[in-house]
Predict the structure.
Amino acid sequence: MDKIRWGIIGTGKIARTFAEAINGTDDAELYAVASRTAGKAEKFAAENGALKAYGSYRELAEDNCVDVVYIATPMASHYDDALLCIENGRNVLCEKSLSLNTEMTKEIIDRAKEKNVFLMEAMWMKCRPVYLKVLEWINTGKIGRPNFIKADFSNYIPYDKNDRLFRADCGGGALLDLGVYPLTFAHAIFGYPDEIISEAEISSDGVDINNTILLKYSDGRFVSADNGFRLQLSNNAMVSGTEGFITLGNWFHCTSEALLYDNNAQVTEKFICEPEINGYEYEIREVHECLRKGLKESALVPHEETIEIMKIMDECRKQWGLKFPQEN
Ligand SMILES: NC(=O)c1ccc[n+]([C@@H]2O[C@H](COP(=O)([O-])OP(=O)(O)OC[C@H]3O[C@@H](n4cnc5c(N)ncnc54)[C@H](OP(=O)(O)O)[C@@H]3O)[C@@H](O)[C@H]2O)c1
């Protein structure tokens, strides 16, 4: 592989951001894009410099020149889109959340293993230097034993019944769209919890528009996470330990800042992450490294972690009594 040829499925907001990161990466080529509508694919290709424009996802999945497919469709489509690519022998980077539930997630992962293709959930946070710096501080004992995590991800989003975020048939709701990040962050540090307690405000469209999650561990550690579309929160994360704490500010903006504090609340180290392109270049590099090494799974975003986070989200929805139409 000289340049790695990317195909993109879906022509929405994140597909455009991702195309910009591909175009800014030396050893990446935006080879093809696919839409359910030929005209949209052609427009996207013209605006973002893709060589091929397909009017169906299948055509892209069947193109043997595609080295890896980036799936940028709504949550409820990931299962079909990922399986379509995998069945055709394509490597896949699929947007979060990987599917609607644990069963579907396991099926996608199992099928990727059977077909011997690379598969990774596009958990860009886990590839970013600021996140890796926070883990390094924790793993080298800078805050002693971490005991508590507080993380929020809630943006005020005006209601739009056509927006995938508010549509149950698209797998909408704050949990799978935003909550997946605080949970992934907490899980990376504390692992799978012993107890999960969650409440949510469910819209008349049948999606969660605000939720709060408490993860408890039998040794006394706990995590508090708040996510939603109805409230604008500060979108910060904090990990507190026996010898200090870490704050991660603006953690979902391209530029974010991690601060290390001692137990007197004095800053002892600071790490500012300025993206080289738009922040998505790090996950592109991770995929490239895996593909060049012939790996089928990323060590930064392992399959088992994707499954465990999905299990936590299943439990939250079970407690709220919320199912997606595809699950009925
Ligand atoms: N990593 C991140 O920072 C980040 C940020 C935002 C979103 N995401 C994830 O990326 C995915 C897409 O999010 P987005 O904000 O880009 O969504 P979006 O703007 O609504 O775009 C989704 C695209 O998917 C395709 N699609 C397929 N089936 C669809 C359906 N039933 N309804 C609507 N669109 C459908 C459409 O493309 P065609 O019409 O061309 O087929 C559409 O343009 C989600 O999984 C989301 O969680 C990740």
Notes: The chain is about 35% helix and 25% strand. The two ends are 44 Å apart (CA to CA). Residues 10-15, 35-37, 40, 72-75, 77, 95-96, 122, 124, 164, 170, 177 surround NAP (CB under 6 Å).
